[in-house]
Design goal:
Its EC number is 1.3.1.48, 1.3.1.74. The protein has two domains: about 1-120 and about 300-329, Medium-chain alcohol dehydrogenases, catalytic domain (Quinone Oxidoreductase, Chain A, domain 1); about 125-275, NAD(P)-binding Rossmann-like Domain (Rossmann fold). Helix content is about 25%, strand content about 25%. It is built from nine helices and 15 strands. The strands form three sheets. Strands 3, 4, 5, 6, 7, 14 and 15 form a seven-stranded mixed beta sheet that branches. A six-stranded parallel beta sheet has the order 10-9-8-11-12-13, covered by helices on one side. Strands 1-2 form a two-stranded antiparallel sheet. The structure holds NADPH dihydro-nicotinamide-adenine-dinucleotide phosphate and the ligand CCCCCCC/C=C/C=O.
Length: about 325
C-alpha cells in the first residue's frame, strides 16, 4: 500500500495566496488494476496560471492543479515500462495512479546530461509558449525589435533567446538587477529593471528609440498600457499572460487600448499554448536541439521538498525565481 501526499486548495485565494490557503493531506492508494500505472513525482512545476485557473476551475478541497515529471514505479499497462519518466498533469501529488491517458513519455533522445525538470520548463509548456507565441502569434521576422516583460522567467527567457536566434533585436525587463544581469548574459541586447527605472516610458524609448515591432506580453496592467504607445505601425502584441493582475481583488481600470491600436494599426492576440498541442512534438524537438547546441540557455529555481510546494508557488508569484520555478521532491 502506497500513501500519497497531496496539496489541496483549502480556501480560495483572496488577493495574494497565503500558506494557510493550502492543506497537506495523505491518501492511501489502492492496488493497481490491469491497464494502470503507479507513478511517483520527481519534479513538480509551479506556474502563474494556477492562480487564475484555481479561481475559475477549482472548488475548495480540490487537489491543486499542476504538472510533474514522474517516474513509473509499477506498471500493469503494456505501453509503459517501470522506470521510465513521463510528464503528467496530475496536480500537486507525490504519488498517483494513472490509466496512461494524457501521459507524455520523455523523448527517448533525452540526454542523461540534461535535467529531466527541463521537460516542465525550457523544453516543456513554458518553452512551447515562447515558441508558438513568437512564431505563430507575433510572427516575428528577422531584423525586427522584440519587447518581452517578465523576461527572466520561464517563458520570457526563452522568448528573448528565440528572438535572437530569429535575427531580432531583443529588449527585456525584469524585477531585479540580478535578473537584468542574467538577461544580458544570455544575449538580450537591452534590459532594464522595471521596478527601479524612474520612468517606464523613458526606459522603453531609450532601449529602442524607433519603437517595437513585436511585444510578447507576460504581465499586462500598467506596463502594457505604457508599452502599447511604443509599438511601431503594424506592430503585433502577443497577449500571453497578465501576472500583474492575477492577484487583484478589484479589477484594474484602463487606460484603454483602442486609440493606439487604431492609429498604429496594431494586431493584439491572446493565446493559450495548448492550442498547439498537435505540434507539441515539433516544438519540443526544436527547443531540445537549441538547448543541446547551447543556443538556448536555461536556469532553474529549484525548491527542495514536496512540503514546500506552496512556498515555491508564492515565491514565484512574488518574483523570487530566476528562470523556471521547480520543486524537487
Ligand atoms: N498563454 C499561455 O498559454 C501561457 C501563459 N503564461 C503566462 O506567461 C507569464 C509568465 O509565466 P512564467 O514564465 O511561467 O512565469 P515566470 O517564471 O516569469 O514567473 C513569474 C514572474 O512574473 C513576474 N511578476 C510577478 N508579479 C509581477 C507584477 N506585478 N508585475 C510584473 N511582473 C511580475 C516576476 O518576475 P519579476 O521579478 O520580473 O517581476 C516573476 O518571477 C505569466 O503571465 C503566465 O500566466 C505562461 C504559460 C502559458
Ligand atoms: C497541462 C497544463 C496546461 C497548462 C496551460 C497553461 C496555460 C496558461 C495560461 C496562462 O498562464
Amino acid at each position: 500500500m502506497v500513501t500519497a501526499k497531496v496539496w489541496v486548495l483549502k480556501k480560495h485565494f483572496q488577493g495574494f495566496p497565503k500558506p494557510s490557503d493550502f492543506d497537506l493531506k495523505k491518501i492511501e492508494l489502492p492496488s493497481l488494476q490491469d491497464g494502470e500505472l503507479l507513478l511517483e513525482s520527481v519534479f513538480l512545476s509551479v506556474d502563474p496560471y494556477m492562480r487564475p485557473y484555481s479561481q475559475r476551475d477549482m472548488k475548495e478541497g480540490d487537489v491543486m492543479i499542476g504538472t510533474q515529471v514522474a517516474r513509473i514505479v509499477e506498471s500493469k499497462n503494456p505501453a509503459f515500462a517501470a522506470g521510465a519518466f513521463v510528464v503528467a498533469n496530475s496536480g500537486w501529488r507525490s504519488h498517483f495512479i494513472s490509466d496512461g491517458k494524457g501521459l507524455h513519455l520523455l523523448p527517448s533522445s533525452w540526454p542523461e546530461s540534461l535535467p529531466k525538470s527541463l521537460a516542465l520548463g525550457t523544453v516543456g509548456m513554458p518553452g512551447l509558449t515562447a515558441y508558438f507565441g513568437l512564431f505563430e502569434v507575433c510572427k516575428m521576422k528577422p531584423g525586427e525589435t522584440v519587447l518581452v516583460n517578465a523576461a527572466a522567467g520561464a517563458v520570457g527567457s526563452v522568448v528573448g533567446q528565440l528572438a535572437k536566434i530569429g535575427g531580432c533585436k531583443v529588449v527585456g525587463c525584469a524585477g531585479s538587477d540580478d535578473k537584468v544581469a542574467y538577461l544580458k548574459k544570455i544575449g538580450f541586447d537591452e534590459a532594464f529593471n522595471y521596478k527601479t527605472v524612474t520612468s517606464l516610458d523613458e526606459a522603453l524609448s531609450k532601449a529602442s528609440p524607433d519603437g517595437y515591432d513585436c511585444f510578447f506580453d507576460n504581465v499586462g496592467g500598467e506596463f502594457s498600457s505604457i508599452a502599447i504607445n511604443h509599438m511601431k505601425k503594424h506592430g503585433r502584441i502577443a497577449v500571453c499572460g497578465a501576472i500583474s493582475q492575477y492577484n487583484d481583488s478589484v479589477p484594474q481600470k484602463g487606460p484603454y487600448v483602442q486609440i493606439p491600436m487604431i492609429f498604429k494599426e496594431l494586431r493584439m492576440e491572446g493565446f493559450i499554448v495548448t492550442s498547439w498541442n498537435n505540434r507539441r512534438e515539433e516544438g519540443q524537438k526544436a527547443l531540445l536541439k537549441w538547448v543541446l547546441e547551447g543556443k538556448v540557455k536555461f536556469h532553474e529555481q529549484v525548491t527542495e521538498g514536496f512540503e514546500n510546494m506552496p512556498a515555491a508557488f508564492i515565491g514565484m508569484l512574488r518574483g523570487e525565481n530566476l528562470g523556471k520555478a521547480i520543486v524537487k521532491v
